[in-house]
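HUMAN: Please help interpret these tokens:
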Amino acid sequence: MTKFISNKAFVLGNYSFGEADRNLILLTEDFGKIQLTVKGILKSKRRDKVATEPISYVEFLLYKKGEQFIVNDFSLLESFENIRQDLDSLGVAFYLLAVLNKFVFEGYRVPKIFRLLKNSLYYLNQERDRRKQLLLLNYFLFFLMQEEGIFRMDEILEHLSFEEKEISRLLYQKKIESILKEEEYTEEKLFFLIKKMERYIREKLDIDISIEQYMMGGL
């Protein structure tokens, strides 16, 4: 008897093959990062085909065949339409997905990272302030570095300016509102702090990420 499994997931990426099928890269709530195929979706008349697009939050009904997950059905939980309608927000969201796709390996449960992505996308869906979005990205990278065990405050601070050090300390203490209150912590400074964290990640994990590839309108 087939055992069905219901699991929530975010679509990190996709690619189509054949005339009708689409392969999805997912970050799931219970199984971490997995890949699976939704057969026939490209020719389907379903209105919720957006569920197979990146960013979408989806509930899948799955079963296992050997080591592979097979899709029995799915339902769209959230399309994040506000993000999709704003190019700047869309760029930020795609950056989050790209970073996670490189950080997270298949076969490992990452519940804290799943919640981080969920909270980040729901926040981004309601917040178009550029400065707050850049602060979100800084916090996102800080959290991932801590989860990966490469976070060394002394090493990070070594290459930062005075103001960047203050922002970093406040991020570490999760004092986000304190950062927002300080007008001198501008968009430009938050952007360059992201660049320096990317460089630190590249040195420690050999992961190459670049915010500039996703900044639609620049600074």
The chain has two domains: 4-78, 81-172. The radius of gyration is 19 Å. Strands lie at 5-17, 21-28, 32-38, 57-65, 68-78.
